[in-house]
Design a protein that fits this description.
The complex is a heterodimer of chains A (183) and B (162). With 183 residues, chain A is mainly α. Chain A has helices at residues 2-13, 17-39, 42-59, 71-89, 117-126, 131-142, 147-154, 158-182. In chain A, 69% of the residues lie in helices and 0% in strands. In chain B, 6% of the residues are buried. Classes of the chains: A mainly alpha (183), B mainly alpha (162).
C-alpha cells in the first residue's frame, strides 16, 4: 500500500476526509490490538485508539513522509497515549518475571473474546512483560512488521530490536511455563 | 505444548467492533485539522539568522575599529587594568623623570663646584696642594698675621705659583 498510501496521506494533509478514512480503516485494527495488549480493557483500548487517530487527523499536516509506512508514526502516537494513560491513572502493570503472580491475571476481557484458552493465556501474560518487550512481540508476531519498521517506530537499532525480541520470547515462555505449572 | 510464537500470531483475531470503528471515524472527521506549523519554524529560523547576522556585524565593527583589545583589557581582564592604564603609566613615568632630573641637577651642581675648585687649585699649586704637610708649612711661611707680609701679599702669591 506504500505508493497508494503516499497519495492518500498527501490528500489527507490537504483535508480530504475520504483519504484519511482509507488510512484509518487500514490501520485501526492493528493500532487497537497494540493498545489492547497494553491496557487489557476493551473500553480503554477503544477510547485510546480513538484519541490516537483523532490526534493523527488533527496533526497530519505536520507529518513528514519517509520510506516507512505511516504506521510507524501511528505507533509512536499510540505509545505516548498509553504512557499518558498510565501516568495519569497511576497504573503500572508491567512487572518482572519473578514478581509474577497468577492471581494478577485479569479476566475482565475474557468474556468479550471468543478465543481458545492457550491464546487467551498468552494474551493475558503479555501485559506482564516490560513495555518494550510487549511492543516488539506485538509488532513482530501479531502485526508482522519487519525489524526495520519496528526499529523505526521504537527509535532503536535493528540489532536492539532482535535482542529485545529474543529476550521477550524467553520471558514469555518462562511466564507461560510457570502459569501452566500452577494449573 | 504449542509454539508460543504461533500462539501470539493467533492474537490477530482480536478486532475492534465494526460499529465502534464507524462511530469513531465519523467523530474524528467532524473535528477540524490543526494548521501546519510552518510559521513558527520559519519565524524561529528567521530569528536565528537575524541574531547571527547582528552578532557578526558587531564583531566586525569591533575588530575594524581596533577597540577589541581595549574592550578585552578593560572588561575581560580587570586584573590587568591597573598595569595597562596609559594615563597612570604616563604620570608615573613623569614623576620618575622629575626625580631623576632634580637628582642629576643637584649632582652636577655640587660636582661642578668641587671640580672647579680642584682644577683651580691644581692650576695654581700643582698636585702639591693636596699634601697637608706642605700646606701647613706654607701657612707658617706666609705668616698671615704679620702686617708687613700683608703688604707684599701679591709678591708672595707670585712665588707660590712659580
Amino acid at each position: 500500500m506504500l505508493e497508494e498510501e503516499k497519495k492518500y496521506i498527501k490528500e489527507a494533509q490537504e483535508g480530504n476526509q475520504g483519504s484519511f478514512g482509507l488510512i484509518y480503516n487500514h490501520y485501526v485494527s492493528q493500532i487497537y490490538r497494540f493498545v489492547f495488549f497494553k491496557v487489557s480493557v476493551k473500553q480503554v483500548a477503544e477510547d485510546l485508539t480513538h484519541e490516537i487517530f483523532l490526534s493523527a487527523w488533527q496533526n497530519i499536516k505536520n507529518y513528514k513522509q519517509k520510506q516507512f509506512p505511516i504506521s510507524s508514526w501511528l505507533y509512536q502516537i499510540a505509545r505516548n497515549k498509553v504512557i499518558d494513560y498510565y501516568r495519569t491513572d497511576k497504573k503500572n502493570i508491567s512487572i518482572d518475571t519473578e514478581d509474577f503472580q497468577e492471581e494478577m491475571l485479569g479476566s475482565e476481557e475474557q468474556a468479550s473474546l471468543d478465543i481458545p484458552l492457550a491464546i487467551d493465556k498468552v494474551k493475558s501474560l503479555i501485559k506482564f512483560l516490560k513495555p518494550e518487550y510487549q511492543d516488539v512481540l506485538i509488532m513482530r508476531y501479531v502485526e508482522d512488521l519487519d525489524h526495520k519498521e519496528i526499529a523505526n517506530a521504537l527509535n532503536k537499532s535493528e540489532g536492539a530490536i532482535r535482542l529485545i525480541q529474543h529476550r521477550a520470547i524467553n520471558n514469555l515462555k518462562e511466564l507461560y511455563a510457570k502459569h501452566r505449572g500452577n494449573n | 505444548m504449542q509454539n508460543i510464537e504461533e500462539i501470539i500470531k493467533q492474537l490477530k483475531k482480536i478486532e475492534p467492533d465494526q460499529e465502534y470503528k464507524n462511530v469513531s471515524l465519523r467523530s474524528i472527521l467532524s473535528s477540524a485539522q490543526n494548521s501546519e506549523n510552518r510559521f513558527s519554524i520559519n519565524f524561529f529560523e528567521f530569528l536565528k539568522l537575524g541574531a547571527a547576522l547582528s552578532l557578526t556585524g558587531v564583531l566586525i565593527m569591533v575588530s575594524v575599529s581596533g577597540s577589541f583589545s581595549k574592550f578585552n583589557a578593560k572588561l575581560l581582564s580587570p586584573v590587568l587594568l591597573s598595569s595597562l592604564d596609559e594615563e597612570k603609566i604616563a604620570k608615573e613615568a613623569g614623576q620618575v623623570d622629575i626625580k631623576i632630573t632634580i637628582a642629576e641637577a643637584k649632582y652636577y651642581n655640587d660636582s661642578t663646584k668641587k671640580v672647579a675648585i680642584a682644577l683651580d687649585e691644581t692650576a695654581k699649586n700643582g698636585p702639591g696642594h693636596l699634601n697637608s704637610t706642605i700646606i701647613e708649612k706654607e701657612i707658617k711661611g706666609l705668616n698671615i698675621n704679620d702686617g708687613d707680609n700683608g703688604e707684599n701679599i701679591d709678591e708672595l702669591l707670585n712665588k707660590l705659583t712659580m
